[in-house]
Design a protein that fits this description.
The structure is a single chain. By secondary structure, the protein is mainly alpha-helical. 56% of the residues lie in helices and 4% in strands. The protein has 15 helices and 5 strands. Helix 7 packs across helix 11 and helix 12 packs across helix 14.
Length: 393
């Protein structure tokens, strides 16, 4: 890492490691942030949009059911920022089918992200908000995938760095704190999470995300854990009751700017650039999530109306709700959900196919797989106008 890449006011945070290379110790939080008119405007817009999303969440009959669908979108896009190629469809097919053979690391990494989010948001979790909780999330995230070499759940004991392929510590773009100073940084980071904050919550979350990324405490998976931290803090600090905001949908198409904004905080102390980027993302994704939640809720109402005739089985409504958790079914999964015989489960799945709620994937004679394309479309894009309800007799 070159000292001349850093502005003079930031060079004081550059230290020489025990192994005689340069590294960066991020300054303690909170930063001295000037609240000029543009920043106040962005904060007001983000607060208003997030408040509308929180209000919309409170009006949903089953917000947690729909939040699970949006968590899958966040998992796919957060993982895609780091180079995975799995889609929402790949994820839900994996979850529905749970193949015993190797499906590749990409989709399993995304599945692990969903599991990690559910773990940190579990109201009965063992640990409070802490570095230890993030380490547990890291262990879940990297379990049984290619990052397994990176000691899942363990803070690094060796140096990592960021830069172009083939670069060394000397010419890296950024070198985070050396191992001998790492816990010093993490202790200060954790204390700040529990301190009384002078800055507004959304700005504090933006600062915490930067700080975690600048510390870079793991050998792999730092970006995904850092974005998971945003989801966690929104819930932990009461800004959202359910994880309806998928911030990675804003970041993924702007990943180059995202990385550049984070780096500029370290090299030039450009907090307004990073915080403004983050607040624009919150506002945009909060508005999107309001629309997407309403779309998913309308779709759920439509599907339940299709199966809610006097002569239909109440089991169909149970299957409909299960589709908003994982928008795909095998007959075996339907049987487990309903606790019925294989024949009964198969008949109920067939009724959902007849109602245009499920579509069978072709080419599978055993362990047939059925997909709720309308739900997938609502999660991953702008769905077409829903078809007219088809009542089940």
């Amino acid at each position: 890492m070159r000292r001349d890449s850093f502005a003079p006011e930031q060079s004081g945070y550059i230290v020489r490691a025990e192994r005689d290379y340069l590294a960066f110790l991020p300054p303690p939080l909170p930063p001295a942030l000037a609240f000029d008119r543009p920043l106040i405007g962005l904060l007001s817009e983000a607060d208003r949009a997030l408040g509308e999303l929180a209000g919309a969440g409170r009006t949903l009959p089953n917000p947690r059911l729909l939040a699970r669908a949006l968590v899958r979108r966040e998992a796919v896009l957060s993982s895609r920022i780091e180079g995975t190629q799995a889609s929402v469809s790949d994820l839900v097919l994996f979850e529905a089918d749970r193949p015993t053979h190797d499906e590749g690391d990409d989709v399993r990494e995304v599945f692990n992200y969903v599991t990690a989010v559910e773990h940190v948001l579990d109201p009965n979790r063992r640990l409070p908000l802490s570095v230890s909780l993030l380490r547990e999330a890291h262990a879940v995230l990297l379990s049984d995938v290619r990052g397994n070499y990176a000691t899942p759940g363990d803070v690094r004991r060796s140096q990592n760095w960021i830069g172009p392929p083939g670069c060394t510590l000397d010419d890296a773009t950024y070198v985070p704190p050396p191992p001998e100073r790492l816990w010093e940084c993490l202790d200060a980071f954790e204390k700040h999470l529990h301190a009384d904050h002078d800055l507004p919550p959304l700005i504090t979350i933006a600062c915490a995300h930067y700080q975690f990324e600048a510390i870079h405490p793991f050998l792999d998976g730092n970006g995904r854990v850092g974005r998971l931290l945003v989801v966690l803090l929104l819930a932990e600090w009461g800004l959202l009751n359910t994880p309806l905001l998928d911030i990675s949908a804003w970041i993924e198409p702007r990943r180059d700017e995202y990385y550049a904004r984070l780096l500029r905080v370290s090299t030039h102390g450009d907090w307004p650039g990073w915080v403004g980027f983050f607040l624009r993302g919150v506002a945009e994704q909060a508005r999107d999530a309001v629309w997407r939640s309403a779309t998913l809720q309308a779709l759920r109402d439509d599907y339940r109306a299709r199966v809610g005739t006097a002569r239909s089985s109440a089991l169909l409504a149970v299957l409909v709700d299960a589709l908003f958790e994982i928008p795909a079914l095998t007959v075996s999964r339907a049987r487990r959900i309903l606790d019925v015989t294989h024949r009964s489960a198969s008949l109920n799945v067939a009724k959902l196919v007849a109602a245009d709620i499920l579509t069978e994937l072709p080419g599978r004679t055993r362990n047939r797989l059925f997909v709720a394309n309308g739900i997938l479309q609502a999660i991953d894009g702008r769905p077409a106008s829903p078809p007219q309800p088809t009542m089940i007799e």
